[in-house]
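seq as requested:
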Amino acid sequence: MSAGKRITRRAFVARAVPGAAGLQVAVAASAPKQPKRYRGASAQTYVWSQVLQQQGKSLSENLDSVFAATRSAGFDAVETMVQFVQTADSAARLADLLGKYQLRLSGIYGGGLMHETEAGKRTVARLAGLAERIKRLGCDVLVFNPNPIRSREKTQGELETQAALLNKLGRTLGESSIALNVHCHAPEMRSDAREFRSNLDRTDPSLVWLNADVHWIYRGGNDPYELLDRYADRIGSCHLRNSVDGVWSEALGDGDVDYRRIVKIFATIKTPMWLTVELAYEKRTKQTRPLAENLARSRRYIREVFGV
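struct tokens:
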């Protein structure tokens, strides 16, 4: 695929699942009309792993109740981790739960080392080996975070190696109609988002997209409005979370990040994307309500602010 020739999300979905394009039309006919730039509202399962761990439980053993709560909160889709497609049995269980609760799989999240050549090749091979399994689940997005080096910034050579391997992963996944959406945390945002920018500036726009994790860009000390506007044509998906006075909120709502301003930036995007709520709790987060209620509040906020 040459640079500049971008595959649309509709094309990805149509290729990924036989009959999926027709299914989308049927669903769209009965669903409320949504802005064309959005595919729907999704929820990441990460926060459930935090809450369940506090109760001495695992996400894997409670995925049924997690999906039930996600659907009850009004979400159209769910994003979860790569561990749930690692084996044929785990992927089959995931497929059963998606069907049971009528949820789409908006994305699979994973990570891996990419700044060293041989280790990076193993990461590419591992994820490429899951592509067909992901596709059979009706999913066309891999949200991928290259492992950061927390003690220092990556060297120029390491960033060049990482970019080359991201291109390779994007090309390989694209053969299975899976789009690579690169994600970030705070370490990538050091020195005026040096690694964040490298992951995009050094890669082929037709192979590597951006998962815009709005609050990690903010927490990393950068201007999310400037960066998202700068890379708007690379955004393939997003993660939404907020904070108040620097502390993560228990539900998505108004706070340090002005999401009404983000809406205006997203209005320029031509490639439809999922709006994925990714709640997360930290030590100072005040948990005053059950997580199921916080998800429902987050869903209402998406509807209020983004119109979805």
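Residues 1-31 have pLDDT under 50 and may be disordered.
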